[in-house]
Specification:
heterodimer, A: two-stranded antiparallel ribbon, 28% helix, 25% strand, B: four-stranded antiparallel sheet
């Protein structure tokens, strides 16, 4: 089977200082990391390959630095990586990114199972997985917390997905795209030997032209980024125990906590 | 001159940082409290290649640079002094001399399991009457046919409680003083070889520091590392390398304490504002950050020189004496910034403070480092 993982390098959210002066964040000197959900993507692909055989291919789109996350994936043991990079993609929206990823998957001959993170921290859109599935016209199972069955012969997947207040078991035919939540597995660490070897491997790059994409139309633009409003001070309830409890219950209902 | 890490080094740092945050940080306080040797953690580190970072791949190592090694030690020491010294001893005091002085057979038999983390090593040089004066060791080795018979004891040996393989320095000719010292590979389970008194210490409580006792220990003559009389040379070369590891450990301990102090200073409110807004605290933080940076640069330069095949004895000693003294100054200030909380075991800075002290002592005291530096600049 062929497992394709979609991963992304992001600015470390813990190190970003929000700017209130326009749409751009102050990103100078902010370290980049692998999107935390994507460690689980790589691990899920590797575990299923170890069970069923086949190969794991990891694809990312991003600038020069994005190759670091592909090298980390190689060091973890994946078979092949591809890097989508073209100046034409600079500042593009999620629809363009999803199309490029879908085209790349087609270009390498498709996949039986495509795995993406539930979202990338920073943008927090959760668009990519569903959009790639739509471009490829294949089933999508989002928010997967466990792949319960995966069969190459039956071309079938059964997965458990997280809902707001419970879980849902869903089956779909292969090829299929799943987006995974944190803790679906325990990601392995890349070994040092793996890191050393991965640091020197040439990584194939796909440009816009390689993917056969025409003019880029960006439909979505970031207008403003602002920090969340500061938390308001808490209210201290005074009075007898009975009074404060009834006031507390009243407040909880009026603020729709219950 | 390039102060930026290359791709391999950045990836190494990211991996070690990630591992340390997820695996070392959660257990560090408990290890300190119980003094339990972190067997499982060391096993995981071995599987990832951290126990043989710059050992050639054909002998089970990861074949990375000494700069990578210093980076990895710093990341581990940022959370746990004990774990970092366990790693440092195996890498630079045991594997490194086996690479440099071992025969092919010795490398296959002893180095490969040590570098791949399947076994753990320790370095037996110090004795009750031979600390800084390593030439004064009293452990003896007498050749008997195709064997050596070792007698004596070693003290303050890191990893001793759990080590599978020990490098033991013993005198094969007392009349020759330091030129009569030889180095032997002794395996756990050899009759007469045992772990003696386990040390109760100020810090690095989980590093398995103990006495090693040798009573008529018979080992094959083929377990002689290098030649007879080369032991002192082997020890000095080994400690030159090891000091870079201890310097990196000191940088990591200092960084761990500094980061805690920085966080605390931003959160702790006194007189209506965060104490980080007071100049008295800001100056302490500024000095801490500057000194840690300087210590790291000295350490990486020493590692870089070793990687480049250049002489590094002086630079290694400079990095060790400076970094270890920075670790003491920084951890002291970190407690001061925390005030009473810093003196409490509820916060990790008192542990960093206790762990820092040993870096001024082991693998050559600060006084010995200054002696090494002086002898290099005066000759």
């Amino acid at each position: 089977m062929r497992f394709v993982g979609l991963i992304k390098q992001i600015y470390d959210p813990a190190e970003i200082k929000p700017s209130t002066q326009g749409p751009d964040l102050k990103l100078d000197g902010v370290p980049k990391i692998l999107n935390p959900f994507d460690e689980f993507v790589i691990e899920e692909c590797l575990q299923w390959k170890e069970k069923l055989g086949g190969e794991v291919v990891i694809i990312t789109m991003g600038d020069d630095n994005a190759q670091e996350v592909l090298r980390t994936a190689l060091a973890m043991g994946v078979d092949q990586v591809y890097h989508i990079m073209d100046l034409a993609f600079k500042g593009c929206d999620t629809l363009v990114t999803a199309e490029a990823l879908a085209r790349a998957i087609e270009k390498i001959g498709g996949a039986d199972l495509i795995v993406a993170g539930k979202l990338a921290l920073g943008g927090d859109t959760a668009h990519i997985g569903p959009q790639v599935a739509a471009f490829l016209d294949i089933p999508l199972i989002s928010y997967v917390s466990k792949v319960k069955e995966l069969s190459d012969s039956d071309k079938k997947i059964v997965a458990e997905r997280l809902l707001e207040g419970g879980k849902e078991i869903v089956s779909a035919s292969l090829p299929c795209l799943i987006t995974v939540v944190k803790d679906i597995n325990k990601p392995r660490y890349p070994s040092l030997i793996g890191l050393r070897k991965a640091a020197k491997v040439p990584i194939p790059v796909f440009s816009k032209a390689d993917l056969g994409m025409g003019d880029i139309v960006i439909n979505e633009a970031m207008v403003k980024v602002s920090p969340p409003p500061p938390r308001q001070a808490g209210e201290i309830l005074t009075g007898s125990t009975e009074e404060t409890i009834s006031k507390l219950i009243e407040n909880l209902f009026s603020q729709k906590v219950f | 001159m390039d102060f930026l890490l290359n791709e391999e080094e950045r990836m190494m740092q990211e991996m070690a940082k990630n591992f340390a945050e997820k695996e070392v940080k959660p257990v560090a306080a408990k290890l300190d409290e119980t003094g339990e040797f972190p067997v499982e953690l060391v096993k995981k580190m071995g599987e990832l290649g951290l126990m043989g970072v710059n050992i050639p791949e054909e002998y089970g190592g990861a074949a990375l640079s000494y700069v990578c090694y210093a980076i990895a030690i710093e990341e581990i020491a940022r959370y746990c002094g004990s774990t970092s010294v366990i790693m440092s001893v195996n890498n630079s005091l045991v594997c490194a001399p086996l690479v440099k002085f071992g025969t092919e057979d010795q490398k296959r038999e002893f180095l490969t399991p040590l570098a791949s983390g399947k076994k753990l090593g320790c370095f037996g040089l110090t004795e009750p009457n031979a600390g800084s004066d390593a030439g004064g060791i009293q452990t003896t080795a007498v050749k008997d046919g195709d064997q050596y018979i070792l007698n004596g004891s070693k003290i303050f040996i890191t990893n001793a409680t759990h080590a599978d393989t020990a490098l033991i320095f013993a005198s094969t000719d007392r009349s020759l003083k330091h030129k009569g010292i030889s180095c032997f590979i002794v395996e756990k389970g050899t009759p007469g070889f045992s772990v003696g008194k386990v040390e109760h210490k100020l810090g690095i409580n989980a590093s398995g520091t103990a006495e090693l006792v040798l009573q008529d220990v018979r080992i094959p003559a083929s377990n002689l590392l290098g030649k007879e009389g080369e032991g002192f040379k082997i020890a000095m070369y080994t400690l030159d390398c090891g000091r870079i590891g201890i310097a990196a450990q000191a940088v990591g301990i200092a960084r761990g304490a500094y980061e805690e102090a920085l966080k605390f200073a931003k959160e702790r409110v006194q007189f209506g504002k965060a104490i980080a807004e007071f100049q008295a605290i800001q100056w302490m933080l500024a000095d801490m950050a500057t000194e840690i940076d300087a210590a790291r640069l000295l350490t990486r330069r020493a590692a870089f020189l070793k990687d480049a095949g250049q002489p590094f004895t002086k630079e290694s000693a400079m990095s060790k004496v400076y970094s270890s003294e920075v670790a003491m100054r920084v951890t002291t200030k970190a407690i001061q910034i925390h005030g009473g909380y810093g003196y409490s075991k509820e916060y990790p800075v008192e542990r960093f403070f206790r762990d820092a002290k040993i870096t001024e002592i082991y693998e050559g005291t600060s006084e010995i480092q200054r002696l090494v530096i002086a002898s290099n600049i005066l000759r």
